[in-house]
Give the backbone structure.
Amino acid sequence: QWQLVESGGGLVQPGESLRLSCAASGFTLGNYDIGWFRQAPGKAQEGVSGISRSGDSTKYADSVKGRFTISRDDAKNTAYLQMDSLRPEDTAVYYCAASRKGATLTVGEYDYWGQGTPVTVSS
């Protein structure tokens, strides 16, 4: 059975870093485009970053450009989101998702979702 499992979330202070992981099981991650999304309390889910199957194409939301980096290691069947210079407004539950529609930031274009990992940025 296919599964995406996020890990690496936690509580950090502003300016610190976290690396989120998205491990796939039951299917080959390399056959899919991967996206990271987040949902803050009381807000709609939003796209954060996406990476194509080849890894050659990446996209970022304006709010995280220059601070977050998406990557993938298909040999490990895992994708990552490196988050630097974290801000309180980055506080949210972060989800990874898999798609075959490109490295988009559109929630509706992703078919498979993980359960999420919470990130809290607070002093």
